[in-house]
Structures are given as C-alpha cells and as structure tokens.
Amino acid sequence: MSTLALSTRRVTGLSRTNALLMMRNRLTLTYAVVMPLLPLLLLFNGERGDVDAGAAAISTGLLMALMFPIYYNLLSMFVTRRDELVLKRLRTGEVTDRDLVVSMAAPGVAITVVVTVLTIVVAMVTGLPFPLNPVLLLVSVLIGCLAFVALALWTASWTRTAEAAQLTSLPVVLIATLGLFGPFFPESAQRWVSLLPSAAVDDLVRITWFGRPGELGSSEQFGFLTTWGEALPALGVLVAWTVLSVWLAKRSMHWEPRS
Amino acid sequence: MPEPTSGNAIEVRDLRRVYGRGAQSFEAVRGIDLDVAPGTIHALLGVNGAGKTSTLEVIEGLARPSSGEVRVLGMDPVTDRADVRRRTGVLLQRSGFVADLTVAETLQMWASTVTDARPVGESMEMLDLVDRAGTRMRALSGGEQRRVDLACTLMGRPDVVMLDEPTTGLDPESRRHVWRLVRGLRDEGATVLLTTHYLEEAEALAEQISIMRRGAVVRSGTPAQIVADQPSEITFATPSVPPPCLRGGHAGRDGDLTVLQVDDLQPALTELLRWAEERDVRLDRLAARTASLESVFLTIAAEEDHS
Fold it and tell me: What is the ipTM of this complex?
C-alpha cells in the first residue's frame, strides 16, 4: 500500500502550490466563494426568520459550496493535469496517489469551510438563529466535502478531457440538486430521493442548524443532544456515497491520458 | 529466481511486458536481462518502438512487469516503492508542468516532495536556469522546460538516475550541456540508465550499451565490444571487370557501388589493391572503414526489415 501512504510534508507543499494557483485563477475563486452565498441574498427579501425558507437557502448555498470549490474544481484540476502529464510526472517521484488527491482537494475544502462560516454570519444578519449544533454542522460539511471529493474522482476516472467534463459532470449535478426538491416528488419516490447526497445535506442543515426533522413543514423541534442521533442516517448516506464513489473510481482510475 | 547478490545498481531478469489481453495483446518487452554496475552509464539504444520506454517504465516502478524480476539497488521498485523512490531520479520522455507556475515555484513545489532536497537555488544554477527563475513555465522554450524537468530529476541527489531520451528536442549546445551533466553525475558516483536513439549520444556517454530491437536486447557490451565482431566495409564504384572474391569476405551491391564486408580490413584491402594494380583497374570512390556503432545499428535495422 506504499503508493497510498500520506506525508504531511509533501501534502503541505503541494497544497500550498495548489492554493497559490487558485488565488491566481480569479474566476475559479469568485465562483467558489460567491455562488454559495448567492441563495442567502434571497433571504433579505422574504419574511425575516422564516425557518423553511432559511433552511432551503442555506442548503442550496452549502451544496454550491460542495459543487464549485470541491467538485468542479477538483474534477477540472485532475483532468487537466492528467491531460498535461503533470500527474504522471509527479508520480515518478516520492509523491503518492493519496498525497496528490488530498493536496488537490485541500484548498477547496478550506474555501468550503470559510464559506460555511460566512453563511452562518449572513444567515444571522437576515434574522436566522445561530446553528443549534455548530460542531455537528461543521462535521456534516466536512463529510459532505469527502463525498464530493469522491464523486469528483469517480467522474474524473471516466472523463477524457476538460471539455468532456462539462457533460460528464451532469449526473453529479443531478444528484446534487434533486434532493432539494424532495417534497415535489410523488410519495413513492421520496424515499429514494432522500438517499441522494443533496437530500442528506438538506436534512443535516435542518437537523444541526434548526433542530427540525428533515420533513418540510414539521413543527417537531428537538434539542441539542437529540441532533447527534437524528443526524446519523443522513451522515450515513454521505458516507455511503463516498465509499461507493471511491470504489468505482479505483476500478477505472488512470493517471495519464489514455492513448 | 536468481538472487541479486552481484551488487549491481540495476538488475533485470527475463523481463516481459505485455499490453492488452488475448488476441489483442502485444508483447512490447520479450525477456530482457540487464545489469548496470554502480557508478556507470548504461545506454538502451534502439529505434522508436523497440521497447526502450516500456522497459524503463518497469525499472522506474511506474508499471508492473508481466513476468520477470527487476531490482533497483537490490530492492523491488513496486513493493519497496518509498525506499527506491527516495534514491532514484526519473526523467520521462514527455512530461508536463503547471503552466501558471514560475520556474522557481515549480522547483519549490518539487522540492517539497523530495526527502533531503537540494536547495532550489543550487538546482537552478546546475541547470543554468537562474535568470529564468521568475518566468512562468508556459513561456519557456522546449529546451528550458527540459532543463527544469532535469532539475526535478536531480533534486534529491539520486544514487540511480533513469533518463528516457534526455536530449530529444534539445539544440546541440543544450545537448552537450546535458552530456556534461550526466558525466558529472557518474563521476560523483551515481548510476545512470538512459535511453536514446542518437548513436553519438550512446557513444559519447555510455560505458555499456544494450541495443534493443522489437522488445529484445540483440547486442550488448562496451561500444568496442559491440563493434568488435562486426565486419569492416570496403566500398567502391563497381568496375567493368568483376572484382575478386576476397578471403573471409562477402560482396554486395548498393546502387552502383560494390560493398565488400570483410572480417579483417587490412589484408583484404591489400589484396584488393594488388588485384586492381595487376589488372590496371581504377577503383572510383574507394572507401574503407572499420565497423562503427552506426554500421552495427544499421545492420540491425536492416535485419529487422528483412525478418
């Protein structure tokens, strides 16, 4: 398993370079920070402190924070660098595959965490409460990051070029959005929709921030301690997507362009 | 499996590499043996498609052999990956860099991945890159990029250096620079295995040469050994009188030239000239030369065309 060993020194060095490149690429950075905060702006228009509207805006924002800085960013970085033989070159040295993946994902994860904190600030400005269980919220976001890193690797494993990524990312765009529209699906489909990562993120926002169960309109309200147990199924969904994506990615992953 | 006890820096035994499966499969490397002594330069010479890169990739640990055994510094490049990589430097035939990074940033990044890395400034001095430190990789010429690539290869002061066509695409001056660098590495005790399709490069650098053809090593030894058992050649414009049959010789035609291949050049040439004088035959465009690496190489290439 030596190709998988992780080195802090190598990961720090490579991550620093990747962060530098991200700072240099203003467009990526703008998308990564601005897109997740856009849905929250809608809250300034509506009724102050409306929990359902607030939860929807926050969920949408956090999913954008998982899609742009994590998913799209890692997918395009991976595919482009594979195409340009950068990954092949790095893999001739001491760098392990795990070093490469972690260091390419790290700057995006940092941005997502910052965006999560900004989300809390903006939400409170619009009159929403401080998250009931902020630690669990952060844990949920980090596990969400893991799931979308894995989804990006899976997509990269069968994407040939950076241009092709515009199409190959569509399945993930679907599973990252449909879950927000659970209530609009027929009853029989809702159980399946709730297994999407987007539904899991939505559930986790409602549970950890507002102490409400996933179902829309429910007036049930639980306390801080209950949130831990209530969050488990949704966290399980994210972990399952992570495991599935990593397993699929490993089966067909390649590190240099296919000839 | 023979035990690697000889103390060679690189040992390869009956290496095979097959691409694809079943009817579609292609055997790129067909049972190669290779021994590279510590502190020497060994060249794998061959035309494109001879299997040089396929062989090197296995020795570098980038690919697994289909069968056979590879030892680098006595270790397995795949299972002992971390230990082998710490002591080896690899230059790929083609590789890429992040276009938006400067030369210094690229080397800094590479240094962060290397155990006990050379200082970046020293690396840039070695490869004559100091005045390009702040230039983005995208703005470098092909030769300059190759030098950055080499700087990465040598960043960890490797004991074994593996270079896949190190000077392809370089201008003559840069090529000489790389040659001096490679000799310098050897003089400091490093072992160098390189591939090339330039005969003069193999001749200029290597103590040992293995000539590859169709996935197999067809000749190997020192440059002197390789040419030793090759016939010398006498050529001249075919005269109107048929030339004599020389002892141990073999006559052929190359256009309007007669080509005589002989084992021992001097007596054969004496015999030919005496014959010409006796018959009063003028041998136009007369040329005689002992075997060179080039003639061996061309002979091997010709064998390929006819087989």
Answer: 0.90
